[in-house]
Predict the 3D structure of the following.
Amino acid sequence: MNRTGFYILCTFILFLLAADISFAQLSNNSYPASFLTNTKRYAVVPVEVLDSVRAEDQIAVAEKNGVPNRCGVVQQTTVDIREEGVKTIADSVTIWRYEFQCPDAVSLSAFFESYNLPEGAAVYVYSADKKQLRGGFTSVNNKKSGKLAVAEIEGTSLIIEYNEPSDVDFKGELVGLRNKIVCKRKIDNKIPNSN
């Protein structure tokens, strides 16, 4: 490879890395307020049970329709966390929580159609057992598109928690979720014979 080709390749790689960073989910690695207070014991978190998605059925439909390696199903649901989530107040932070469940899911993820948070507020997505945590996603993640996608949580349920301090400039907007229910193939299932 000549010197010009090398420079073009390096520029292309730097461009890809910069593009990846600009679309990344930026997390401040903090913990949800409900993890740090005792109020969580007394609040009943509302639950929305999503349509059952049997992995075997989805794989069969995908194969019948010639869709290779289908990895998930998206279900649209509109939830305003501030309006429909359980609300608790701890110190000077208001906490809203809402849970999604799908009994046949391998994992769940969330996509916020409307995401606009004030400075100091944060969103978290975590498993019911609190072993998997995504966030906190803050105003740093506010984009012109007003959207935010959150990586998968393994298991059949996920909880979305929104924490908003009492002294914010405006009320945060966290509305219109699309949930991706993942029904992955097992690694040893239906691997084509190469012979």
